[in-house]
Amino acid sequence: MGGRPMFILADETERTQGRDAQSSNISAGKAVSEAVRTTLGPRGMDKMLVTDTGDVTITNDGATILNTMDIEHPAAQMIVEVADAQEEEVGDGTTTAAVLAGELLSKAETLLDDDVHPTTIVEGYAEARDIALDAIDGLVLDEELDDDVLTNVAQSSMTGKGTADVTTEKLAEEVVSAVRHVEGEEGVVRDDVRVHTQTGGSSSATELVEGVISEAEPVHANMPREVSDATIAVVDEKFGVREANVDAEYSVDSVDQLTAAMDAEDRELREYADALSSAGVDVVFSTDSIDDRPAAYLADAGILAFENVSDDEARAVASATGASRTSKVEDVEDADLGWAETVRVRTFADEDLAFVEGGAAAEAVTMLVRGGTEHVVDELERALSDALDVVTAALDFGGVVAGAGATEIVVADRVREEAASIEGRKQLAVEAFADAVDVLPRTLAENTGMDPIDGLVDLRAANDEREGRSGIIATGQHGEIGDPVESGVLDPVAVKREAFESATEAATMIARIDDVIAAE
Q1: Cα dihedral value 381, 384, 386, 388, nearest 10
Q2: Which of the 8 DSSP states describes residue 85?
Q3: Residue 254 CB burial class (10 angstroms; 0-12, 13-18, ≥19)
Q4: Is 312 helix (H, G, I), strand (E, B) or coil?
Q5: N- to C-terminal Cα distance for the chain?
Q6: Which of 5, 82, 248, 486 is deepest in the core (most CB within 10 A)?
Q7: Which of 199, 195, 208, 205 is CA-nearest to residue 350?
Q8: Residue 125: how many CA atoms within 13 Å on its side-chain side?
C-alpha cells in the first residue's frame, strides 16, 4: 500500500467526525426542543407557523408545531420523531417529551466536555430512566376513574389550548361522555369516536352526536331530508349506464330502434331504484357517483341517496349501522343491510351534512366542532383529539398521576437518591438525568410568570412537606405552589411513561453518533 491513503467516498460527500459531529447533532436537537419549550403548560405561549404558500397555523400543540416546521437536520428530525411517537402512542405529552429530550442532550453535551464517554452516558441515562419509570408507577393514584376524575384529566390536557368561547369544563364533559359511549369490556374503542369540524357558528355550539357524520349531500332535491327507522345500504358502484367491456358499434336504422334502445337504457337505470326498493332500503351511501336519471328514480321511490362518499366515511357508516359494503346494487341482500334510528340532513351555512344516528352495530359517536374561523375549529379539533386520547389512555393504560410538575419533581428526587449507590462515572450521567427532569417543573413555573429558580426551590420544599403532592398551579395569569389533585390537575400515567421512554431513547441515540456522512 506504501502508506498512501485510500478514499472510499465520492468527492462530493461531506463528512463530520468526532466532537464536531456530536456538537452539531446535539445543537440541532436542542434547537428544536427550545422551539416548543415556551408552549409547555397551561400558560404556554402560542406559535404562529406560516408555510411557503402563506397558510397560517396558530397553536401551542407540540406535535403540530414540530410537524409544520421545515426541519432538515437529521438529528433534529429525531426529536420530531419523538413527538410523533408520543402522539401515536398516547395522544398527548409531545411537548414534554421534546423538551425533556432537548435537556437530556444539553446535559450530555456537558458530560462530553468533561470527557465522559458516550457509552457511559447512554448506560447512565438508561439506568436513570428505569428508576424514573419505577418512581412514576409508584405515584399512580388509588382514586377510582369515575367521570369526575376523567373530566379533570380531559380538562388538564386542554387547559391553555385555544377553545374560543366554550369552557374547557364543558368540552371535557362531552369528551368523557363520548369515551364512555365506546367503552366496552375490552376497553375503549378509540376509533369509534370521530371529530368533525364545521366552520360557522359559535364554538359553544360544539355538540356530541350519537352516530357518524358524512359530508356527502343528497343527490336530488326531491329526496327526503330525514328518515326514521332507516334501513341502510353502503355500495361501491356507480349508478349509471354500464359500459361494455369491449369496443362495439351499434347501427340504428329507424326511430323504433332508437326508442327501443332508449327504453332499454331507461330500464337499466330504473333497476337501481327498483332493486334497492325491493330490498327495503331507505338510505343508500355510494362511494361512486350517481347519475341524474338514477337519482331521480331513487327520489321517486322515496330513497335518500348520497354519492361520492369517502372511503373513510363509508367504513364508519357501515361499522355504525351494521351494514356490509357491496360492489353491486343487484347483489344487495338482507344480510348486507344496516339500520339506524335516524338519518337526517342538516344545513350549516350553505353546506349539508348527513347525520346517521342510533346505529345498530356500534356505539359510534362524533364530536361536531363549531367555530367562526378555520383557525378556531382547527385548534379546537387538536384540543379535543388530545383530550379523547388522554381519557382513553387513563382508562386503558394504568390510571392517573398528579400533574402540574408534581410527578416530575418526585422523579428527579428519586433518581438523585438512587444515583448515590451507582459507582463510577455512570453516576454523573444519572445525576445529569435528574437535573434534566427539573427542566419540566422549572419551565412550568417560568411560563406561569414565576421566577423559575425560586419556583423550583419552593416546589421542592413543598413537595417534601406534602409527600409528593405539590405542583405549579396556574391561577389567573400567575402560578402558585399547590396540590394538583385537589386542583383537579391530573395526567395519565401512560403519558408520563411514554415521554420519559421516548425522550431518553432519542437523546441516547443522538449522543452516540460520532460520524456524519452526507452525500451532497
Answers
A1: -130
A2: H
A3: exposed
A4: helix
A5: 29
A6: 82
A7: 199
A8: 31
| 161-170 CB burial, b ≥16 within 10 A, e <16 | bbbbebebbe
DSSP state of 243: P
Q: Model confidence at 412, in pLDDT bands (50, 70, 90)?
A: very high
Set 39, 64, 94, 508: catalytic member: 94
**Does 212 score more than 60 pLDDT?**
yes
Which residue's C-alpha cell is 322515496?
Answer: 302
With the CA atoms of 419, 421, 425 and 431 taken in that order, what torsion angle do they form, in degrees rounded to the nearest 10?
10
CA torsion through residues 409, 411, 412, 417, sign: positive
Selected catalytic residue, list 38, 39, 57, 95: 95
**CA distances (Å), origin 348, targets 121, 138, 197, 200, 372:** 58, 50, 11, 7, 12
331 annotated active-site = no
Characterize 496-514 residue by residue with b for buried, 16 or more Cβ atoms within 10 angstroms of its Cβ, and e for exposed: bbbbbbbbbbbbbbbbebe
The residue to which cell 337505470 is assigned: 269
Q: How many residues does the chain have?
A: 520
Clarify whether 94 is annotated catalytic.
yes
Q: Catalytic pick from 192, 386, 413, 491?
A: 386
R_g of the chain computed on alpha carbons: 29
Catalytic residue among 61, 389, 438, 491: 61
Of 215, 214, 216, 223, whose CA–CA distance to 294 is shortest? 223
- CB count within 10 Å of CB 250 equals 6
Residue 277 — pLDDT band, cuts 50, 70, 90? very high
Q: Rounded to 5 degrees, what are φ and ψ at 184?
A: -125, -170
The pTM of the full predicted model, rounded to 2 decimals, is 0.80
95 is catalytic: yes
Residue 249 has pLDDT above 80, yes or no: no
pLDDT over 80 (residue 510): yes
Instruction: Please give the Cα distance from 392 to 181 (Å, whole number).
Output: 12
Q: How many CB atoms lie within 10 A of CB 392?
A: 24
Amino acid identity for residue 251 in this structure:
S
Cα gap 10→74, rounded to integer Å: 20
Task: Tell me how far apart the alpha carbons of residues 439 and 338 are, in angstroms, rounded to a whole number.
Answer: 54
Cα–Cα distance measured from residue 424 to residue 120, given in angstroms and rounded to the nearest whole number: 9
